UniProtKB/TrEMBL annotation:
PROSITE patterns: TPR
Protein name, entry field: Tetratricopeptide repeat protein
InterPro entries membership: CellSynth/LPSAsmb/PSIAsmb (IPR051012), TPR-like_helical_dom_sf (IPR011990), TPR_rpt (IPR019734)
PANTHER family (UniProt xref): TETRATRICOPEPTIDE TPR_2 REPEAT PROTEIN, TPR REPEAT-CONTAINING PROTEIN PA4667
Originating species: Streptomyces vinaceusdrappus
């Protein structure tokens, strides 16, 4: 039954990619049809209007359109500095541009624009409040995101995009009930919107509902009209496929995303990740380098560094790790909380004791599932295996909130259990990690296989799982 369900899933994905490509062609044909509203043709929305429509309705915007919108709003506000709504639009555009390009310089501009909107705009200004919540999410400041998002909801309870940004805030705080409430609200307010489906897919993924997540993101990608939005959902579908170990399906999603929007650098990094898993190392390195050239994201630098390390190219890996440190410093200077990423990096490639300090601070402030996994692993790396297992269990036990089926999280738990001589559970979790995704990491997947080989077959003396 599982094999047949997998076959149906792959068929659905192939149909989705074909239908999305066809929709793009059809969309190009439709704009050529005559308008039946008179002799004059309807004015086509310009780039600024397209970007404004995107950033004010909670969907991804095309980078060229964003640049036009930003320039147009900046010029307008020099002439009309008391236009509060325009300040909110400009701030939201800065947030989106910073998110898409990893340009942390946009964050200070966004903060200034959004606070100016609050100062000169109407007393009830949900758009500016929501923009500040989105900015806080980009900075990984989830307590602030919760504060601003809840204020936006209070100002405009039926503004669905305010509930949507709260999903990110509550996820970062480990508040699964809050996530559920926010998702229910956006599904009530905008049940058929592709953006709602994409949000639902992310929540379902975190809960381990992989088939449901795939179905929702497939529907969202097929229904999205704007290329930038469609490409973002295809990239999300690619990530879900890769997490299931479906390399060929993931690669097709990432490639279609890039064909739809060549500026979708997350898809380019996903393509690199998948090519590495397929053994196409040269292509993978080129894709990572192309993604980093346009979006110098610290996470991509970590992935590329680990790929180099897995190939025995230590010097090349260190170059990427230096880039990661530089990007983290820049982000922290711009108000970001980078303790999670830096803690993950230090645990494996730097100072594990420092990783523990950073991640304990992070857990005290915003105890999400990703932090639980990272802190457990850092504790293991410093020899504190009993406490490490407590956090690894939080990250992988659905009853404790860790419903996401992450091969890396389960691998971490298995290694910690092996260190504690709990060989039965260790063997089970290492096998589970490789079943979830045999290619989850160029460094850790081979380590999981070696650990299983060393454990050998179960012994009657092994403790029960």
């Amino acid at each position: 039954m599982e094999i047949e369900r997998g076959r149906r899933s792959r068929r659905r994905n192939r149909v989705l990619i074909a239908s999305v490509a066809g929709a793009a062609v059809l969309g190009g044909v439709l704009v050529l049809l005559p308008w039946d509203g008179g002799d004059a043709s309807p004015p086509a929305p310009g780039p600024a209007a397209l970007a404004r429509g995107a950033v004010t309705t909670g969907v991804p915007a095309a980078l060229p359109d964003l640049a036009v919108l930003i320039g147009e709003r900046e010029r307008h506000l020099r002439a009309q500095p008391l236009d509060g709504p325009s300040w909110a639009v400009l701030g939201a555009a800065y947030v989106e541009q910073g998110r898409r390009t990893a340009d942390v310089a946009m964050w200070a501009k966004a903060e200034k624009a959004l606070h100016t909107s609050l100062k000169v705009g109407a007393e009830r200004n949900p758009q500016a409040l929501e923009g500040l919540a989105a900015l806080a999410v980009a900075r990984r400041d989830f307590p602030a995101a919760k504060k601003w998002g809840e204020s936006a909801v209070k100002a405009a309870p039926k503004r669905w995009t305010a509930h949507a940004v709260l999903i990110d805030a509550y996820t970062g705080l480990g508040d699964d009930k809050g996530v559920g409430r926010a998702l229910e609200k956006i599904m009530e307010l905008r049940p058929d919107a592709p953006a709602t489906g994409a949000r639902a897919a992310a929540v379902y993924r975190d809960r381990g509902w992989r088939e449901d997540a795939q179905a929702r993101i497939s529907d969202a990608a097929a229904a999205a009209e704007a290329p930038a939005e469609r490409a973002a959902y295809l990239e999300q579908a690619g990530r879900l496929a890769f997490e299931r170990g479906e390399r060929e399906e993931a690669l097709r999603f990432f490639q279609e995303s890039l064909r739809t929007d060549p500026d979708q650098r997350a898809a380019q990094a996903g393509q690199a990740r998948t090519l590495a898993a397929l053994g196409r190392t040269t292509d993978a390195l080129s894709a990572y380098q192309a993604a980093l050239a346009k979006r110098p994201d610290a996470e991509y630098a970590l992935e590329l560094g680990e790929l180099y390390e897995s190939l025995g190219l230590g010097q090349a890996a260190r170059v990427q790790y230096d880039l990661l440190r530089e990007r983290v410093r820049d982000a922290e200077a711009a108000g970001a909380d980078e303790r999670l990423l830096l803690g993950r990096f230090e645990a494996d490639h730097g100072d594990p004791a420092r990783a523990v300090r950073l991640l304990r601070e992070e857990w005290g402030r915003q105890p999400g599932i990703a932090v639980a996994d990272a802190l457990g692993w850092a504790l293991h790396r410093t020899g504190e295996h009993e406490e490490a297992l407590e956090f690894a269990t939080i990250a992988t036990d659905g009853d404790k909130g860790g419903g996401v089926r992450s091969a890396l999280y389960v691998f971490h738990r298995g290694v910690i259990e092996r260190e504690l001589e709990r060989y039965g559970p260790a063997r089970r979790h290492l096998r589970e990690a490789l079943m979830i995704n045999p290619y989850f990491s160029p460094l850790r997947a081979p380590e999981a296989r070696r650990a299983l080989d060393e454990l050998g077959e179960p012994s009657v003396e092994d403790p029960p799982a």
